[in-house]
Target: Glycerophosphoryl diester phosphodiesterase membrane domain-containing protein
Amino acid sequence: MNAFTTPYSRAWRFALACPLLFAVPAVAEVAQHVVEYGAGFYRSIAAMKAAEHDTGRMVLGHLKVIALYLTGYWATRFWAYGDDARAAGRLDARAIGLYLPVVAWELMWLVVIQDGPIIAGALNLPERLIMLIVAILLPAMLLFNMFLATWKTTTAVGDGRVGFMRSIELTRGSYLWSLGLTLVTVLPVLVLHYVLAFASLGRSPAVTAGVLGADSLLVAFMAPLLVAVNYAIAERVLGRAGLAIEPEGGRGAAPVGPVSGNLA
Model:
């Protein structure tokens, strides 16, 4: 198995061993689809555009993204503890404390990218300016997040040796590899996600329900797949530094470099 197939294998193992945790993003996605359908979102492309800022859709979209962050905690722990389903959902106080800044970071960008245009619109800022800012920030954020894969992975297992800044420093030499792995692994699934969304437009209720049901399962699989990519990046980055992903590896140990496991 190579680096490009391992994330898929890990995602499947998590799905099979932890079905309830795996289902959380799917349930959130189904709930969002139900609200979208009620708002007429899937009638046409024009209707999709008109309903994109529907309040119920936005609220459930936020909950879905939070479910993805939770999967980051669950799946990382599952693999780090040798595919242990009990470890995946265990509420480890140290790991939670280290992982909370990761969630805070992600939530900040969720608000900026998804809520920023709405807030800016309420302030009567020019729509073209808003779209330009989002068009710049979104790819920039996605590209920058490659540097944080090791931080996100190690904190989820209670390893405080690699903080925000140290993760960036350690990843520099592996950035292009990390970017390539992410694109090759995630892009096909992401494209399929959008293909299913457009395939559901203007269909009968039964066909729309079937397509959106398949899409919800795809989103549920995409959640651990994204985490598995981060996990693979962390393995490479730490391996090149002579280290490894170690549950509670930071307990009583010096940090890897000048920064501890937080946003400092």
Observations:
- DSSP finds eleven helices and no strands in the chain.
- Confidence is low (pLDDT under 50) at residues 252-264.
- Residues 6-240 form one domain.
- The longest helix spans residues 205-240.
